[in-house]
Amino acid sequence: xxxxxxxxxxxxxxxxxxxxxxxxxxxxxxxxxxxxxxxxxxxxxxxxxxxxxxxxxxxxxxxxxxxxxxxxxxxxxxxxxxxxxxxxxxxxxxxxxxxxxxxxxxxxxxxxxxxxxxxxxxxxxxxxxxxxxxxxxxxxxxxxxxxxxxxxxxxxxxxxxxxxxxxxxxxxxxxxxxxxxxxxxxxxxxxxxxxx
Length: 196
Fold this sequence. Notes:
Blueprint: H1 2-16, E1 36-44, H2 49-62, E2 66-70, E3 79-84, E4 89-92, E5 101-106, H3 107-111, H4 116-127, H5 158-167, E6 181-185, E7 191-195
Parallel strand pairs: 1-2, 1-3, 3-5
Antiparallel strand pairs: 4-5, 4-6, 6-7
Helix pairs in contact: 2-4
């Protein structure tokens, strides 16, 4: 009887595809078999270069299913960062390789006193598919201007990172959207959106 129980105990994990005392062959819930790599061009971003570098690093540190990397050429970039004189505005993603995203880093938000790295990280969140939530706390990156100019947090929180990982969990989709929605962030309190 004991031999049968021992044999059955050894057989059950094999039937379930696991081994007793061994690590599971299944990846963690947040990991995919292939990470989506999005490339960007920041050659037109001027004084924003340092803020973009830190914003990209913050996102790469927080998420697992997508990686942001500089493009080898401007023409090969999936999205571009540009310094502009107006308000920040960005293509609302999630975008995928071969996409055509645009992040306009507006000087007007800086003139009002907002942190450049927070702006760059927030706008990158739109590229990755996150909407605004201006009523959120400073710890929520997508709260944007909501918490005021004293908020300099430029890192996504766990919920934001989890949503981005969910957005890219299936890898690269075969179907691309036919239009892009652009989010215009008026960091003084108004929000406009439009399609193109």
